[in-house]
Amino acid sequence: MAKDFYDALGVSKKATPDELKKAHRKLVREYHPDRNPDDRAAEERFKEVQQAYDTLSDPEKRKAYDSGGGMFGAGGPGGPGPYGGQGGGRFTGDFGDIFSTIFNRGGGGGPADQMRGRDLETDARISFDDAMSGTQLTVTIPKSERCPTCSGTGAGPGTRPETCPHCEGRGIDSQGQGFFSISQPCPECGGTGQIIPSPCQTCGGTGLTHQTKRYKVNIPAGVKDGTRIRVAGKGEAGARGSAAGDLFVTIQVAPSPVFERLEDGNLEVDVPITIPEAMRGGTIEVPTLSGTKRIRVQPGTQHGAIQRLRGEGPPRAGSRSRGDIRYRLNLVVPKELNDDQRRAVDQLSETMNGIDPRSELLRGARARRTGKGASNG
């Protein structure tokens, strides 16, 4: 594990939240277990990135990390500092445990109840069609889970954790400094409120083991690119049987070769039409999410005109309604004409009786030039 969370993400200590997120997503995609099957080094790097981002993406945890590195020891998370690693036959926790103890000590429960597991994040890519109709996908997550030998207690067979005699189970060591009292995680139990005289040999007293889990995630119909889906309770297991964190899956939607998704939740399609269709009107076939439909092109349709099919677009989040599909009608002009087509165009031109569509434009330009000359005179 990296000694510095910023180094783990490859960013500076002044990195903005957006820079942290961008670096995290890039590294998660690079080292995700699905891309690196049976690669232990990649899996460890993936966990390192997740742990670093979990701390630095939380403003309070980041502030504590930046200002209190010495407090947590030079060894980094899980290292040999005063609150990392193991010693004296008891588990002393890691950064995630300590931060949870400091910042989550609300009402109710002892220290172990407050040491909620870390949230995890991963990315998942789906097709445009699956985004429109909804789907279910499977994500693979390396994570800490309750030890199967001790059921998460950290204690060896036939034993159980004992209340820490130093803090009497509070998990906090308070020291008076004049008018002030400084509280910090108990140095004897690492903030857990318990010690383990006989640690479990499988997990070394942590109550957790590294496992790879697969979870099914339901993707709602109409999901947008970048949507973050929360899977409750599927993050890291909490220490000593406390609540697990959550899993957040960021959805990446592949672009469609046909439809463009607009900011207002509708879809737009460029539909080519011929000059005769634009001039005399007609019925044309256009694509929809479920197949095709026919729409009416009005006589005299101009290039770029919009036709709309209401309720044929993506499902709207939190509603039974759907968006629309907008069809932008674009005139297609042939680059080459055969003899018959050229004669037909000539005949059409003759029937137009010399109509000049630029007459108004040029009349205004001439008037402007004449007026300018008069003013200069």
CATH topology of one domain: HSP40/DNAj peptide-binding domain
Structural class assignment: alpha+beta
Q: How many DSSP helices?
A: 10
- Strand tally is 17
Structure report:
The chain is α+β, with helices and mostly antiparallel strands and 377 residues long. The protein has a domain at 260-364: HSP40/DNAj peptide-binding domain (Sandwich), CATH 2.60.260.20. The chain contains 10 helices and 17 strands. The protein has helices at residues 5-9, 17-31, 40-56, 59-67, 95-103, 111-114, 128-133, 275-280, 339-351, 359-376; strands spanning 86-87, 90-91, 120-126, 135-146, 162-163, 172-177, 180-185, 194-195, 208-219, 228-231, 247-253, 260-261, 267-273, 282-288, 291-297, 305-309, 325-331. The strands form 7 sheets. The chain has a 4-stranded mixed sheet with strand order 12-13-17-16. A 3-stranded mixed sheet has the order 3-11-10. A two-stranded antiparallel sheet has the order 1-2. Strand 1 and strand 2 form a beta hairpin. Helix 2 (17-31) runs antiparallel to helix 3. The longest helix has 18 residues, at 359-376. The N and C termini lie far apart (82 Å).
Can you lay out the helices and strands and say which pair or pack?
Blueprint: H1 5-9, H2 17-31, H3 40-56, H4 59-67, E1 86-87, E2 90-91, H5 95-103, H6 111-114, E3 120-126, H7 128-133, E4 135-146, E5 162-163, E6 172-177, E7 180-185, E8 194-195, E9 208-219, E10 228-231, E11 247-253, E12 260-261, E13 267-273, H8 275-280, E14 282-288, E15 291-297, E16 305-309, E17 325-331, H9 339-351, H10 359-376
Parallel strand pairs: 3-11, 13-17
Antiparallel strand pairs: 1-2, 4-9, 5-8, 6-7, 10-11, 12-13, 14-15, 16-17
